[in-house]
Amino acid sequence: MAYITQWITNIILLILFAAILELLLPNSSLQRYVKLVVGLMVLMVMIQPILTVFKTDPEDWLSSVSEWVDGDLPDEETSIERKKVEIEKGRLAYISEQVAVQMKNEAKEPLKQQFGLVPQEVTIELEEFQENENILAGLKVVRAVLAPAGEEAEEEVNAGQADGITLVETVVIHPVGDGSGDEKEDAAVLADVHEVDEITAFLSVQWQIPSENILLELKGGGEDD
Q: What residue spans define the domains of the chain?
């Protein structure tokens, strides 16, 4: 902007100088030559910006233009990439939730009949998912919370008595040897490592996924795989 202001100022000053010089010079052949010279000077000042462009090194000029054009592109690209990541995360979360519900329903009755357990909660993590691809191919891990079938029935009764409000009381299963009665038997069953492995293998066949991708959390116990 300063360059343009200076350029216009030079033109105006040169025109004023030419007008004053014309008034001072007498009417003679010399006046015509002076007008010609002043006219050429005004013309040179007017085309000065064009001459400046040609004096500049083309590589430097193109480099400065490229930097100016690309100046805002990194921020825009970062914003677009961030939006893509957020959309992909939301998509994976929705798919994971739907698949987890389906897997929970598929395993509920077989687990209940085979082991007397029911899945209270099933969550999955997907590394990636491509269209027209088996969703289990991008499966990272499946976490399942299992509890004795009797607890589920008790919770359903409590939910009905609460007019639709589910009140789930946390059931603590004490380790074997703490002196409790029926809870000792439940803990002994859930703490049996061989049965945990058997349940994991059973779910692996049921869900058609590798057993190492399954993490079991037994209610009142720890987490096993």
A: 2-55, 74-224
